[in-house]
Design goal:
325 residues, mainly beta, five-stranded mixed β-sheet, five-stranded antiparallel β-sheet, 4 helices, 24 strands, 39% strand, globular
């Protein structure tokens, strides 16, 4: 176990305390949080519905593209796929998700399948409650991309069930999103009526279709979903991410969600895992307080280290401790 102590810090909120950073000998990806007794939701799912003929969508997307919204804090806390409705190729028909939620107003963000908000109201404060959601399903995303003209993606989504997982049908969704899409460069060019010139977070591929793949999982069971698919050369891999989430279609509840950049997918079966992590989450540290954090780590190749980092949501302050083996 490793313990980190922080004293005399004023109003520091903690998130993603343990992350793997650059400079390690073999591992340059994020660590997987994997507590066998209870899981925390890796991210909050914020599904946005937008359209090129909607003037309000222009302002909503501009707000979501601002520096603070795309900061490291938000990028680690939420997954933000944007379903662009009634767009021509190369964007897919994603009307099935809109229909599933009952044809939501445009623009709208659906948070964790449950609550609808105006995208301009998406802030750290109104997603904070969802960050504490506990779940009995853990998730890991691994894979590789081989590019030669087109791009062959080998993907694995690993799900692990806790001892109290509910017996029900779950659906796994896998989305490929892309940033920095310029519709002027499409063939033929596309000129949105609302004046947008660049699309970020756009859903370009629903690997499991827009209804997902149904599965069941038993307490303590691990399920592996291996997918191989081809993305044509119109995809810019450095701008693409994979988002995976688990949802019950009857209740609409989301039980787990995570995302990875396609260019930074971790290889199968070699990811370090945090097996237990006490005091994981967000806290306020007042002057004179002491915080103690303990964790146990599993490392398949026994060559990696974890670097604890404590970050503030409200400023650029952070405290980074020495790596622990």
């Amino acid at each position: 176990p490793a313990a980190a102590f922080l004293e005399s810090r004023q109003d520091i909120a903690l998130s993603d305390i343990f992350v793997l950073e650059g400079g390690m000998s073999l591992w340059n990806y994020e660590v997987i949080i994997d507590d066998q007794h209870s899981f925390s939701q890796e991210q909050v799912l914020c599904e946005m519905f937008t359209s090129s003929s909607c003037d309000l969508c222009f302002f909503a997307n501009h707000y979501l593209d601002t520096e603070i919204m795309r900061s490291i804090y938000f990028s680690k806390l939420i997954s933000l796929p944007r379903y662009r409705l009634l767009y021509p190729e190369p964007l897919p028909d994603v009307g099935g998700r809109d229909k599933y939620y009952g044809y939501v107003p445009i623009p709208t963000i659906v948070i964790n399948g449950r609550d609808l908000i105006d995208p301009l109201e998406l802030t750290l404060e109104n997603i904070n409650d969802y960050l504490d959601d506990s779940t009995q399903i853990g998730m890991g995303i691994y894979g590789s991309v081989t590019s030669s003209g087109s791009h062959v993606v080998d993907l694995r989504v690993e799900l692990e069930a806790g001892p109290a997982v509910e017996a029900m049908d779950y659906n796994l969704f896998i989305l490929i999103t892309q940033d920095s899409l310029n519709p002027d460069l499409w063939d033929p060019p596309f000129y949105p009526l609302n004046g947008e010139t660049m699309f970020n977070g756009s859903v370009r591929n629903c690997v499991e279709s827009d209804t997902g793949s149904t599965f069941t999982i038993q307490p303590g069971e691990s399920r592996f979903f291996d997918r191989t698919f081809v993305l044509d050369n119109s995809y810019s891999i450095p701008e693409c991410s994979v988002i995976a989430f688990v949802q019950n279609l009857e209740t609409r509840s989301v039980y787990q969600v995570d995302s990875r950049a396609l260019s930074q997918l971790a290889p199968f079966n070699s990811a370090p895992k945090i097996m237990s992590l006490e005091a994981r989450g967000c806290f306020v540290i007042l002057t004179g307080d002491t915080l103690s954090v303990e964790m146990a780590m599993q490392d398949p190749d026994q060559n990696d280290k974890v670097t604890p980092t404590i970050s503030s949501w409200f400023s650029s302050d952070s405290v980074t401790f020495a790596p622990y083996s």
